[in-house]
Design a protein that fits this description.
Blueprint lengths: L3 H21 L13 H5 L11 H9 L6 H5 L3 H8 L1 H9 L5 E8 L6 E7 L20 E5 L2 E5 L2 E4 L2 E4 L3 E5 L4 E4 L11 E5 L2 E5 L12 E5 L4 E5 L6 E2 L2 E5 L2 E5 L2 E2 L9 E5 L4 E5 L6 E7 L2 E6 L2 E9 L4 E6 L10 E6 L2 E6 L8 E4 L9 E4 L6 E9 L1
Antiparallel strand pairs: 1-2, 1-27, 3-4, 4-7, 5-6, 7-8, 9-10, 10-11, 11-12, 13-16, 14-15, 15-17, 17-18, 19-20, 20-21, 21-22, 23-24, 24-25, 25-26
């Protein structure tokens, strides 16, 4: 195991080195003062830091604060490749350096489009979020995978008509940049998607010409490939998904086999590659989030209670939300430090963000939070890096 103190000191020196170099427009220098050679700067297979074993050098880089990652990524290809890898997140976790940032998609009161905001655990705004490539879409899926944000499919309005997309874009939260991933097999929107065991699943939704879909597919990030899997037994749309212990749960929305909204839960076993059903799901869900082994939902007809699903015994319980005033107040969820944030969609600036701590002693689960997005929250994700 590398020495933490000496590694941290070395990382601080390196941080100062490349930060000053970038500001001055000069190549970064090593501790000894000599410029890094072109071979090192350009070689993806070069040592991470000349003179140090790669595991020690990687540990040193992992100690640098998250705000410096984009600057680190332009030092050389070797550093950039490491920062983009799953190994980087693993080493950061080993060093106890993972930082949680909240990414919130908001729309302002004037309706001037949607914008991503980045907030740390103290409620401080972080780096500007670069514009996503491609045309603006709605009805897309959002998944976090290996410290990266995936924006999946959705539809764009073209000549007054909905045009479904199979595009998938990836936002690297460490390098603050976008890239294009492999297209899905089926263009879709208003579908369910979730990460399970390092794979991303997309189920149902609407396809071309607005037809409802029962098909499903899975994305392998190592192969950058989508593969069709067994379909649902009936089309389903407007639904959502979450993963628990190797299984994919699809809830809410509607299906062609029910009148109105569906209470059925479709469960996909990722090891056996088979679907089964449960009957005790939520309907007309307006907000959902997973904290630990529990799913939190708010239903459209009951905005004053949290519906909490325990994946271990498949049970539900209801918890009152401590708000007064109009019963039309709606919420969206966020997650930070294992706690659930309830962002009010009411424009009144007097409304505050509620915080629910599922691990707090009985009677003290509810608190308030200083974290408050500027604009109405459409969705949010938490990324640790």
């Amino acid at each position: 195991m590398p020495n933490f103190v000496s590694g941290k000191k070395r990382a601080t020196e390196l941080n100062m080195c490349f930060s000053n170099a970038l500001e001055q427009g000069t190549p970064p220098r090593s501790k000894g003062g000599s410029c890094l050679t072109p071979k090192f700067v350009d070689g993806i297979h070069s040592p991470v830091l000349p003179g140090l074993p790669d595991d020690v050098a990687m540990y040193c880089l992992a100690l640098v604060p998250r705000t410096n990652f984009p600057a680190m990524g332009v030092v050389c290809k070797r550093w950039r490749s490491f920062i983009q890898s799953k190994e980087f997140i693993r080493v950061r976790k080993l060093a106890g350096m993972l930082e949680e940032w909240l990414y919130v998609l908001t729309v302002d009161s004037q309706g001037n489009g949607s914008h991503w905001k980045v907030i740390d655990c103290l409620g401080q705004k972080q780096n500007e979020f670069p514009t996503m490539p491609g045309c603006e879409k709605v009805g897309f899926g959002v998944v976090v995978l290996n410290g990266k944000l995936l924006i999946i499919a959705g539809y764009a309005m073209i000549d007054g008509n909905r045009s479904p997309s199979a595009d998938v874009y990836q936002y690297d939260s460490c390098l603050n940049s976008w890239s294009k991933l492999a297209d899905m097999n089926v263009a879709r929107y208003d579908f369910a998607c979730a990460e399970v065991n390092g794979m991303v699943y997309a189920v149902g939704g609407y396809g071309m010409d607005g037809e409802s879909l029962s098909c499903a597919e899975v994305y392998d990030p190592d192969a950058d490939k989508w593969t069709v899997i067994e379909s649902l037994r009936r089309p389903r749309w407007g639904c959502f998904a979450c993963g628990f212990e190797g299984k994919l749960y699809v809830m809410g929305g509607r299906s062609s086999f029910t009148i109105g909204n569906s209470r059925f839960v479709d469960v996909y076993n990722t090891e056996r590659h088979t679907w089964c059903e449960m009957k005790n799901g939520c309907v007309m869900v307006t907000a959902h989030a997973v904290v630990g082994k529990k799913l939190f939902c708010i239903e459209w007809k009951n905005q004053r209670k949290l519906a909490i699903f325990d994946s271990e015994d498949h049970s539900w319980k209801m918890v009152p939300v401590p708000v007064t005033g109009s019963s039309s107040i709606r919420f969206q969820f966020g997650i930070l430090d294992g706690k659930l944030l309830l962002f009010s969609l009411q424009e009144d600036p007097g409304y505050i963000t509620l915080l629910y701590d599922p691990n707090a002693p009985p009677g003290s689960e509810w608190q308030t939070s200083v974290i408050k997005p500027s604009g109405s929250c459409m969705c949010s994700v938490t990324i640790k890096a």
